[in-house]
TrEMBL record:
The keyword Lyase applies. It comes from the Bacteria. It comes from Neolewinella aurantiaca. GO terms for molecular function: L-allo-threonine aldolase activity. This is Threonine aldolase. Its cofactor is pyridoxal 5'-phosphate.
Amino acid sequence: MQINLTSDTATKPTGAMLKAMFSAEVGDDVFRQDPTVNQLETVAAERFGMEAALFCPSGTMTNQLAIKCHTVALDEVIAEEKSHIYQYEGGVYSMLSSVSLNLIKGERGKILPGQVAAAVKPRYDWLPISKLLVIENTCNKGGGSIYTIDEARTLVQEARSSGLAVHLDGARLFNALVETKESPTEWGNLFDTISICLSKGLGAPVGSLLLGPQELIDRARRYRKVIGGGMRQAGYLAAAGIYALDHHVERLADDNARARRLAEALAPLPFVAAVEKTETNICIFHLAGELMAADFLETLAEHGIQAVAFGPQMVRFTTHLGVTDEMVDRVIEVLQGVS
């Protein structure tokens, strides 16, 4: 049995999703003539109560298009230091938008009340202009930590009182919503723009969506084209996104529960120093003594289990569509047998 806990990007389309893809009606999306892409963008925008949406190849692209649309050169973006836009997007904000990042040290990737207002810079010629707040829900490097809508609202109010726009990196937002029972429209009403990923826990092979006002999405569409993100018969991929939104959202609660099972099994093991709070489908833990992540992962690989190092003595397990209860049982069995 091969078990892939590296990332929820390891998901593969189900048979039913593939059937939907192969039966999709397609056209040329650069000319806005792909009916399935148009349908996906409409469905997503309506679900969040927002005006428009743009289908893109990746979450990095949707996040960076949002930054580009909300800022001009020499502005700055405020974000938590564990945020995806800082950690995993190649520093492209400096190249594409000519902006800087003002990083906040929060808790588990979450910005705390008062920190946004404190981070906004005064207006001096020698300082960048604070223009945009980005928060990530759930936060990957925060162990899948959740913002509740009330927590987010506090930060958004701070941002707006200082004249900032607000963007939500919601790549794994649905993993949070199945826990909090909040609605997508509550989040859509709060933020200027939202990015959601279709190719993580939702199980589509490719794609993310940028949601926002029509005027901003029109500008983002033009930027998408000039950086090479225009796609032609993308309806085959969009069909997978529609299927995912229709069929794979509620099942994310199963992924979250499986990650919590792994966290509970890890906690008492002698080679584990600590397990970070596990709220959704990401479980991060710290190894004890002199056990290094590279050696530990090698041991797991000998048993057909893949995971990733998050530091010299940190490991991340991520559950997803391709991880079953039987697989979790097997992982726990192997962990309990590690000496």
